[in-house]
Structures are given as C-alpha cells and as structure tokens.
What does this fold into?
Amino acid sequence: MKKKIPNTPVEGCKPEISYPCLWQYKIIGTDRESIIDTVMDILPNTDHLLANSHASSGGRYVSMNLELVVQSEEQRLSLYNQLVENTAIKIVL
It folds into this structure.
C-alpha cells in the first residue's frame, strides 16, 4: 500500500513559488513503459520532458524525471496527486 504524504506544509515553512515556473517530479516505479504510458495519459497535450534517471541494481525499480512548466499551485498539486494515485507509480518526489 502506498503511503501518501500530505501536501500541507509545516506551519510557516511553505516555500514561496512564483508561477508559472519550471517544475520537476522524480517518478519511481517498477516498469519504465508503464510510467511513460501513465505520464502520456495524464499530460496528452502538454509540453514536458520525461527522461530516464536510474534503475536499481537488481532492476526491480526504475526512476524517471518529469519536467514541465506549471501554471499554478493547484496544477502542480493536481498533477502530483494524479501521479501518486496511479498503480504503475510507487513514489513521486
């Protein structure tokens, strides 16, 4: 079962982010193609860069970097939630 980290910042520790801005997510899963398919389903008409990052030494996990311009905090958090809720993805940072 995936543990979802709450999006609420610690009191007084919320970073100041000026939108629109370039944002990067690190996505970890068990299958590279499933991660690619998931990102394409979530962002079908959005310019983004999805690049290979690492694979675990046993090949059980892979990570990819997703980079795109987000227009607002709502969009950034919505995308995070869509990624986290997908069964092909184990962790989103």
The chain has two helices and four strands. The mean pLDDT is 90.
